[in-house]
């Protein structure tokens, strides 16, 4: 199965992707994580990406599409993958159609009023990428999953979050229609119920598909 996770910043794409990756044994490919890794390592792609991610803007389509194309050509993607945060524009979706066959798009709809608090209170594990929220961490500074150090993403501040939400509305939300027309969109509602509730709903749908 080749799956796309679609949804606004903070909708829970990463949270669901780590669980889905464990359950179905598919690699979790997050373009945001790839850019953050490049920024950390000071690569040329990282230097370019930083100027966009710091402002909550999208990295140019050509660069992003090339990275994903290379990543999907690797051996671990042969039996399926989870794309988190790609595509994010119609141009990216059209490019993806040329080098991949997508089976389903998991779209997480969520009330925008929940997102600012979710993102500004998020902490992420430096080692495994698991997301937490300060409201449930009880002061913990290490990851319950792997013991890694938790940190706050540079783009998780009110000004950059607002810009990311605007970019989502303008450039990414049109993908909902794009994939509805292809007949592969699966709609879910993100809420503040524990992530396992949404995870169960997504698995119930994916389990019905051929693998
Ligand atoms: P990216 O890293 O993809 O960020 P994003 O899309 O803004 O999405 P987030 O990772 O912030 O949200 P999420 O949906 O994964 O939420 P999470 O599960 O963590 O991209 C970053 C940047 O990279 C972009 O701005 C852009 O510059 C660049 N980029 C990336 N892809 C690109 C592309 N294709 N083209 C061009 N540029 C690109 O959850 C959020 C919080 O909510 C956490 O604290 C979590 O614990 C909490 N939470 C989750 N579920 C629940 C729940 N059920 N109840 C309560 N809290 C919950
Ligand atoms: Mg994410």
Automatic annotation (TrEMBL):
Binding site residues for Zn(2+): 125, 128, 143, 146
Record-given protein name: Adenylate kinase
Pathway connected to this protein: Purine metabolism; AMP biosynthesis via salvage pathway; AMP from ADP: step 1/1
Gene designation per UniProt: adk
NCBIfam families with a match to the protein in the record: adk, PRK00279.1-2, PRK00279.1-3, PRK14527.1
Primary residence: cytoplasm
Domain notes for this protein: Consists of three domains, a large central CORE domain and two small peripheral domains, NMPbind and LID, which undergo movements during catalysis. The LID domain closes over the site of phosphoryl transfer upon ATP binding. Assembling and dissambling the active center during each catalytic cycle provides an effective means to prevent ATP hydrolysis. Some bacteria have evolved a zinc-coordinating structure that stabilizes the LID domain.
GO annotation terms (biological process): AMP salvage
Binding residues annotated for ATP, in chain numbering: 10-15, 122, 131-132, 192
Family per similarity comment: Belongs to the adenylate kinase family.
Role summary: Catalyzes the reversible transfer of the terminal phosphate group between ATP and AMP. Plays an important role in cellular energy homeostasis and in adenine nucleotide metabolism.
Region of interest (NMP), ranges: 30-59
